[in-house]
Write a structure and sequence with these properties.
about 200 residues; mainly alpha; single chain
Length: about 200
């Protein structure tokens, strides 16, 4: 169902205010005034500031989903695509958190609410990883006895790396170019990759 331009504007204005002032310091009235819409219009779309916050998170996840879909359309060997999924996921999360400034504190403080909103993205990402694994098995490049289990392990391992990656605590001093061969070796080993 298409989202109205008014609702998109309200969400974008709210995201900017949350990023600048934080969730707690931003009021529904602030959002209404900054958007140039009245409080009545704001309350037509959202019952509370928490609903607006969740809409902001959903918008960020939508952006991430679109980028993952674009990655899925790229032609590359499946083992390289899995590494690309890992880096794309981590970079998209980091970009979303950095883009949202003060909102990041609330993002990590309220991680369980965010996890509920994020469920659709996670399900789609799991399906994407499983698809790439099936592709690799079909091409006889991988030896994977349980595709769904391995997809979950990869997905949850990457999610577990989000916070250290965002804060630059993961592989300090390593850049993507220097860490990628190591990540590729780990993936290849886990998949029993057959290098031709």
């Amino acid at each position: 169902m298409p989202i109205s331009k008014t609702k998109l504007k309200l969400v974008d204005v709210a995201r900017q205010l949350f990023a600048k002032n934080g969730l707690e310091a931003t009021t529904m009235n602030d959002i209404a005034v900054a958007s140039g819409k009245g409080r009545r219009t704001l309350y037509t779309y959202f019952k509370s500031k928490d609903e607006v916050y969740m809409a902001v998170i959903e918008q960020e996840l939508s952006i991430m989903s679109q980028k993952m879909i674009a990655l899925g359309k790229q032609k590359m060997p499946p083992e390289e695509k899995l590494v690309a999924i890992i880096y794309t996921h981590l970079n998209l999360i980091k970009e979303a958190v950095q883009r949202n400034g003060n909102l990041r504190a609330e993002f990590f403080r309220d991680i369980w609410s965010v996890a509920k909103v994020r469920k659709r993205f996670d399900v789609a990402e799991l399906a994407f990883i499983a698809h790439v694994l099936r592709e690799g098995v079909a091409q006889r490049r991988f030896i994977v006895p349980n595709i769904n289990l391995l997809a979950e392990v990869i997905h949850y391992a990457v999610k577990g790396l989000e916070v250290p990656y965002i804060y630059g605590r993961l592989g300090e001093g390593l850049n993507m170019a220097s860490s990628r061969p190591l990540v590729q070796r780990i993936i290849n080993g886990a998949l029993g990759v057959r290098i031709f």
